[in-house]
Amino acid sequence: MQIKSRRAKFSSWTQREKVAGRYMRAAFRKMGQKGELTSAHNLGHVQRVSLYAAEYVKAMGGGRKKRAQARIAGMTHDRFRDAVQSLGQKKEESHETRSAKYMQPLFESRYKKSASKAIVEAMAKHGSFPALNEIGKNVVRDGVVFADKFFEANGAYIGFRRAMFMGERADIKERIAKEKIDITKKDQLQKLAVDVTLGESSKRLAAFSDLSKIPSHLHPFVRYQVEWQHKLVSGLQSGEPGIVNLVTTLFAEGLKSKPRDLAETIRAYSPLNKTDREFQREALDYLDGKLAVKFRQLVKKTA
Prior knowledge:
Layout: H1 6-9, H2 13-33, H3 43-59, H4 64-76, H5 83-86, H6 95-110, H7 113-124, H8 139-152, H9 157-168, H10 170-178, H11 186-208, H12 219-238, H13 241-255, H14 262-268, H15 274-287, H16 291-298
Helix pairs in contact: 2-4, 3-4, 3-8, 4-7, 4-8, 6-7, 7-8, 9-11, 9-13, 9-15, 11-12, 11-13, 13-15
């Protein structure tokens, strides 16, 4: 009886996606047991990057195989994005490089050279924008980078994610101890939550507001997403009750020894007024994949 080669066994892109999904669910389950996950980097994060990376590739005219490669690259791009590096503690090698190096032999044993190269490059380089003259050379990489930066790290969703992540950060917890901040007192908790979330948001907003390094076909969508960050910063600066309540609630969740899953926390959030209700509705649309509709409306392939 003839034995099929490993590559032939995994020849279906649908099957390849399923295998990658099962593999990453198992990997993240183990990381979760070790406490190596955060609200910013968990299974939900890579699943959404996978989903929206494929949406980008589709919008750019990519076929079924390229979309599958984008989903696989998105699903595996943070294979080693653990809590230590997420919290700002340096490692000798970046998580992008570690993840790509680790997965490369697996991909090369199962996929054709061109497919493996596209996926590995997307993983290794997802931490920075491709140069404008590189856009389109590897649409898989483009999709993963843009899904990671303009979907996951933007929009109304980032208001929830950032506030909760700030509560998880080791340096923030050290500050609480050093400055003897009593987080059991609402006013002190709220002041700290607003202060750290506003500081981080202002820094991130400045970076995303510069469209000079972003391809023009993405400008309408990026403006739409970044506008939510403007609303977040403006609300924190003015003390808007709904925004203050949102970041304080999520920040407090992040401070817990075992925070709830971010998506679960967003769904359970009780809005205070119209402002944070709109943030929650938009964030839920994102979590449920509905932001793809807005993306398709705003992004068109350019010649």
